[in-house]
Structure formats: structure tokens, C-alpha cells
Design goal:
Blueprint lengths: L2 H8 L4 E5 L9 E7 L2 E3 L7 E9 L5 E6 L2 E6 L5 E4 L7 E5 L3 E9 H10 L13 E4 L2 H15 L5 H19 L18 H13 L7 H8 L3 H12 L3 H19 L4 H7 L5 H12 L3 H8 L1
Antiparallel strand pairs: 1-2, 2-9, 3-8, 4-7, 4-9, 5-6, 5-8, 7-10
Length: about 300
């Protein structure tokens, strides 16, 4: 997926700060951009729902969108959200701001189709999401912040986080921001994963700890849909699947560091990190010390 390309086309005057391109995300894409004063006609996205979250706004900044001949001013405050259905665009946009930082999430229509299939719902495509500006939705904001954190500091379970987040985001849009309230049926009880399924999943993680495990693979092992599995696993283990896998890889990395048989770059690669620097940041965030310091203490 090419979130950076989509963003460049739609916001040619913005400055790209971060992008999910190159992170291996296959079910959602994202970019972080700085927007300044600008006026123009945006480009519609043909196959994605765009969710924009102001992560660093301003009380003085305002975005004014002209839709169906009417102007709609919205303060660009931190946490404000915009929703753009597939193929939708404002007639014109005016941004009055010295600098606003926004996260743009691009959700493909396949995520909505997947949820419709898993829960036997009438097909609710991405163009059924309401065109909205100035939305306040803490669920969407938290999903966005978690993905932004992954973009800024990639972890070994980043692809799993992206896969899970795309479904949660699509489910939230279907539940709370769709034209048809049929989507209100997308609610899953927080029932825990039964013991037999859980044991199979945990065993699979241990057997494939060095592989690029996906949430889809784990859901298949549990014989559940991805969305249902993710909720049930989190209820049983206290953490979502991607975080559990990340924790297990961290424990494996600690063992390798203690044995002192591999270089830090080799351990980073074996732990599925994109680089030694990202491994060092994640390791220190989790343990309070760098891998080199942990190895020294283990001696």
C-alpha cells in the first residue's frame, strides 16, 4: 500500500514527516504530515476511506471545507478527526494555520468486506461511512496514536499491530460513523479464548517465534475470525496478540544476550526488528536498559 503516494497527491502543499511505507503493512497505510495555510481542491481517494486525526493542533487554526455549496469551518484542535468515505472529497478546502500536524490513515475497502463476511452482515462498503469533519471519537484517536507510535519506533510486532488496528478501525467506522445503522451489529463480547484454542495458539507462537507471525495465522490456529480472535485473546491474556508476540520475542532476545553468542545486529534481526537501532529503542523502552547494558549485567 502506498500511503505516502496518496497523501502527496491529495495534500501537495504539506510536508511529509513519517510514513508507513516500507514497514510491511498490508492492510492499512498511514502518513504523518505538517499542514500550513493552504487553499485548493483536494483529490478523492478511489479505494480507501481516509481518517485524519490532528495530533498537534492549535486553538487559532481553522480548516474550512466547502461541501455541497456550503462552507463548514472546523477548529484544528488536537484530537479533532475528519472522515472521508471512498471517492468523497470537499469542493474546496481552506486551511488557516501556521502549522498543524495530522495523522492520515487510509483504510482499504477490503477491511470492511472482511468484517461483513466474518459477521454475516450486509455488505457495508467504505463509501457508506459518513463524510464528517470535527469529529470527537476517543476510540479512533487511540487507534491512531498507537499506529503513530509504531511508525515512529517500529517494533517486532508492528505488522500484527497494523493488521489488528485496521480491523478495529473499520469496525468502529461501521458501528458509529456509517450511514446505515445495520452495522451496529458489529459488537463482540469480551469472552475469553477457551483453554484448548489458547494452548494451540501459544504453542504456535513458541514454535514460530523466529518467523514473521501474523494475526491471521494465529486466528486460523484458533479457528476464529481475526476480529473475534483478537478480542478473545486479549481477554484471556491481558494483552492483544501483537503485544504478546513482542513480549515473547523480547524474552528470547534476553536469553540470547545472556548467552553472549550473537552480535546485537544478529539478535535484532532474529527478533524481527528492522534495524539494530529500532531493537535498541524497543528493548530500552521495555526494560529500562539497552541490549548492551543488559548483556553486561548478565555477565
Amino acid at each position: 500500500m502506498q500511503g505516502q503516494t496518496q497523501g502527496n497527491l491529495k495534500y501537495p502543499e504539506s510536508t511529509l514527516l513519517k510514513s508507513s511505507d516500507g514497514l510491511g503493512w498490508s492492510t492499512i497505510s498511514a502518513d504523518l504530515r505538517t499542514h500550513r495555510s493552504w487553499q485548493g481542491q483536494p483529490t478523492a481517494l478511489a479505494s480507501h476511506v481516509e481518517v485524519t486525526v490532528a495530533v498537534r493542533g492549535s486553538d487559532e487554526a481553522v480548516a474550512t471545507c466547502k461541501v455541497a455549496g456550503k462552507w463548514h469551518p472546523v477548529p484544528l484542535q488536537t484530537g479533532t478527526i475528519w472522515l472521508n468515505p471512498v471517492g468523497a472529497k470537499a469542493d474546496e478546502i481552506r486551511i488557516s494555520a501556521s502549522e498543524v500536524r495530522a495523522l492520515h490513515l487510509y483504510v482499504p475497502t477490503s477491511a470492511f468486506a472482511r468484517l461483513s463476511h466474518d459477521y454475516n452482515l450486509p455488505l457495508l462498503p467504505g463509501n457508506s461511512v459518513r463524510y464528517s469533519s470535527g469529529v470527537q471519537d476517543e476510540v479512533i484517536r487511540q487507534i491512531g496514536l498507537s499506529m503513530l507510535s509504531e511508525m515512529e519506533c517500529p517494533t517486532a510486532a508492528g505488522r500484527m499491530l497494523a493488521e489488528t488496528s485496521s480491523l478495529f478501525l473499520a469496525a468502529r467506522l461501521m458501528q458509529a460513523h456509517a450511514e446505515s445503522m445495520i452495522a451496529g451489529g458489529v459488537s463482540v463480547s469480551a469472552q475469553r479464548l477457551e483453554n484448548g484454542r489458547l494452548k494451540r495458539v501459544l504453542a504456535y507462537v513458541e514454535e514460530h517465534i523466529d518467523d514473521d507471525v501474523t494475526v491471521t495465522e494465529l486466528a486460523d490456529v484458533a479457528c476464529l475470525s481475526v476480529f473475534h480472535f483478537t478480542r478473545a485473546f486479549a481477554a484471556a491474556m491481558g494483552v492483544p496478540p501483537h503485544r504478546y508476540v513482542s513480549q515473547r520475542r523480547l524474552e528470547a532476545a534476553k536469553a540470547l544476550l545472556a548467552m553472549n553468542r550473537s552480535s546485537l545486529s544478529e539478535i535484532a534481526l532474529k527478533s524481527r526488528f528492522s534495524s539494530q537501532s529500532s531493537f535498541t529503542r524497543a528493548f530500552k523502552r521495555a526494560t529500562g536498559v539497552t541490549p548492551a547494558e543488559y548483556r553486561q549485567m548478565a555477565r
